[in-house]
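pasting for ref
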Amino acid sequence: MAASGVAIQDEVVSEFNNIKLKHKYRYLVLKLTKDLKEIEVEKTVESSTYAEFIDQLPKNDCRYAIYDFQFDVGDAGQREQLIFIVWCPETSSVKTKMLYAASKDALRKKLVGINHEVQATEFGELSECIIIEKLKSKMVK
């Protein structure tokens, strides 16, 4: 359980393992339940572009997401990295932003194998170019 008192449903870890080990999904989206007591799987998507993923994020509410990001590294070929996204737009309520921030570390600890984390408050911070640069900068040369 997170310091915020928010629990993480078992399905979250199960679906995360499906994306990590079996590459069953391109991404999954997690959210707080309506009563704000648990983190649950909102959706799993098997095939999608990164742009389609970004377009489905709510403009006024927070979400967590795990995206199986594919990118080209030139002569070294294609790479895949799991990225953990914490989406908390400025227009979401203060209470919601606080709960998502307070629950993030407990969720990360349950999701073993995340390569990178991105926190964003506006769509520009999630641009594909920015994500690729972050991923490339952390690669072993």
